[in-house]
Design goal:
This protein has helices spanning about 15-30, 70-80, 95-100, 100-120, 160-180, 200-210, 230-245, 260-275, 305-310, 320-330, 335-340, 340-350, and strands at about 5-10, 35-40, 60-65, 85, 130-135, 185-190, 190, 215-220, 225-230, 250, 255-260, 285-290. It is an alpha/beta fold. Strand 1 (about 5-10), helix 1 and strand 2 form a beta-alpha-beta unit. The longest helix has 23 residues, at about 100-120. The N and C termini lie far apart (about 50 Å). The structure holds nicotinamide-adenine-dinucleotide and 2'deoxy-thymidine-5'-diphospho-alpha-D-glucose.
C-alpha cells in the first residue's frame, strides 16, 4: 500500500471517459492528495486510459461495484475519504432504452450506497467534507428551438438514463437537506474527446469512417447538442472542487450548439483531409436510420453562473477539439481495436442492424 497523504479524494468511475481525464488531472495537480479511483470496469471502464498515472505514488485503483453496499462501506471505513467525486454511471441513452434496470441499479442504487456510506463516515466529524455529484443536462429534458437550460430549469427527464440521473441528483439533494451532507451537483452538456467509448456519436462515427462503414444518423439529423471538450469539463470539476459553494448546482456547457447532421458533415470533412481521401468521400457513408425513441430535440446550457462566479469558460474551440480528438483515435488504433471486438460487435449489431 502506498503512503496515504493529506487529503483523500475518492473518484468513482475513474476508468471511464470523463473519469480518466479527471483522475489524471488530479493525480498530476495534487501531489499531496491521495486519489482513489473506484471502478467496476464495466464495458465502458478501461485501465488503459490511465497507463500514464497508474504507478504514481498518490494514486490507488480500487476495483469495486458501487452497487455493493458492504464493499463501499468497508472502503470508507478503511480509507477515510474526505471528498467524493461521483462519476460512475451507466451513461449511454440507447443502452438505457434496451436495459433500464442496469441504469436504476448503478445510477440510483449505487449513488444511494455512496451517499449512505459518506454520511455514516462523516456525520460525527468536524473536518471539511464534500460529496460532488457529476450529472448531466439531460435531467432538464428537451428544449425547443430557443432557450437555454439554467440551474433553475425544472427537471423533466425523458429517457431511462436521464430519469435515473435525475433521481440520483434528487437523492444527493435529499441527503443534504435531511442529513446535512455537504454536496455540490454539476450538470454538464455533451462531452467529446480522447478515450470516449465508441458507442457515442463522435467516436462511433470516427471508427466507422476509418472502417468505411455507414454513419447511422438517427431520424432527420436535426437534433441539437451543446458540445464540450472533455478536458474543459475536467478543469471545471477542479475549479468547482476548489471554489464551489456547498449546496449549489453548477451548469457546465460548451456555448457550442451543433445540429447532428452539421456536426457529422464537419467530422467527415476533417476525416477526409486527415485520411487523404477525396473530398466528399466520408459524407457518402451518411445513412438516415430509425429514430431513437423519446429523442430529445435540443440541449443547450446557460453556463453564465460558473463563468461569473468561478471564472470558468471553455478553452478549446470545437474545430480544434474535434481535430485533436480525431488525431487521438487515429494514433490509438490498438486502443480502438481492443474496445471494438466481441461484446462491442454484439452490441453494435443489436443496436444498428
Ligand atoms: P463512461 O460510460 O465512459 O464511464 C463510466 C465509468 O463508470 C466506467 O469506467 C465504468 O466502468 C464505471 N461504472 C459503471 N457502473 C459502475 C458500477 N456499478 N460501479 C463502479 N463503477 C461503475 O461515462 P462518462 O461519459 O465518462 O460519464 C461519466 C459521468 O459523467 C456519468 O455520471 C455521466 O452521467 C456524466 N456525464 C457524462 C457526459 C458525457 O457527455 N459523456 C455529460 C455530462 C455528464
Ligand atoms: O448531454 C449530456 C449527455 O450527452 C450525457 O449525459 C450522456 O452520458 C452522453 O451519452 C450524451 O448523451 P447523447 O444521447 O446526447 O449522446 P450520443 O452521443 O449518444 O448522441 C448524440 C446525438 O447523436 C443524439 O442526438 C443522438 C445522435 N446519434 C447518436 C448515435 C450514437 C445518432 O444520430 N446516431 C448514433 O448512432
Amino acid at each position: 500500500m502506498k503512503q496515504i497523504q493529506n487529503k483523500k479524494i475518492l473518484i468513482t468511475g475513474g476508468a471511464g471517459f470523463i473519469g480518466s481525464h479527471v483522475v489524471r488531472l488530479f493525480v498530476n495537480k495534487y501531489s499531496d492528495y491521495h486519489i482513489f479511483n473506484l471502478d467496476a470496469l464495466t464495458y465502458a471502464g478501461n485501465l488503459e486510459n490511465l497507463k500514464d498515472v497508474e504507478t504514481a505514488e498518490n494514486y490507488t485503483f480500487l476495483k469495486a461495484d458501487i452497487c455493493d453496499r458492504k464493499q463501499v462501506a468497508d472502503f470508507f471505513e478503511k480509507y477515510n475519504f474526505d471528498t467524493v467525486i461521483h462519476m460512475a454511471a451507466e451513461s449511454h441513452v440507447d443502452r438505457s432504452i434496451t436495459n433500464p434496470f442496469a441504469f436504476v441499479e448503478t445510477n440510483v442504487m449505487g449513488t444511494l450506497n455512496l451517499l449512505h456510506a459518506a454520511n455514516n463516515s462523516w456525520k460525527n466529524s468536524d473536518k471539511n467534507h464534500l460529496f460532488f455529484h457529476i450529472s448531466t443536462d439531460e435531467v432538464y429534458g428537451t428544449l425547443g428551438d430557443t432557450g437555454l437550460f439554467t440551474e433553475q430549469t425544472a427537471y423533466d427527464p425523458n429517457s431511462p438514463y436521464s430519469a435515473s440521473k435525475a433521481s440520483s441528483d434528487h437523492f444527493v439533494r435529499a441527503f443534504g437537506e435531511t442529513f446535512g451532507l455537504p454536496y455540490i451537483i454539476s450538470n454538464c452538456s455533451n462531452n467529446y474527446g480522447p478515450n470516449q467509448f465508441p458507442e457515442k456519436l463522435i467516436p462511433l462515427f470516427i471508427n466507422n469512417i476509418i472502417n468505411n462503414k455507414v454513419l447511422p444518423v438517427y431520424g432527420d439529423g436535426n437534433y441539437t447538442r451543446d458540445w464540450l471538450y472533455v478536458i474543459d469539463h475536467a478543469i471545471a470539476i477542479h475549479l468547482i472542487l476548489e471554489k464551489g459553494k456547498i449546496g449549489e448546482t453548477y451548469n457546465i456547457g460548451g456555448f457550442n450548439e451543433w445540429k447532428n447532421i452539421d456536426l457529422v458533415k464537419t467530422l467527415c470533412k476533417q476525416m477526409d483531409e486527415k485520411l487523404n481521401r477525396p473530398a466528399g468521400e466520408s459524407e457518402k457513408l451518411i445513412t438516415y436510420v430509425k429514430d431513437r425513441p423519446g429523442h430529445d430535440l435540443r440541449y443547450a446550457i446557460d453556463a453564465s453562473k460558473i463563468n461569473k462566479e468561478l471564472g470558468w469558460k471553455p478553452s478549446v474551440t470545437f474545430e480544434k477539439g474535434l481535430s485533436k480528438t480525431i488525431d487521438w483515435y487515429l494514433n490509438n488504433e490498438v486502443w480502438l481495436k481492443n474496445v471494438t471486438t466481441g461484446a462491442y460487435q454484439k452490441y453494435y449489431s443489436g443496436q444498428y442492424s
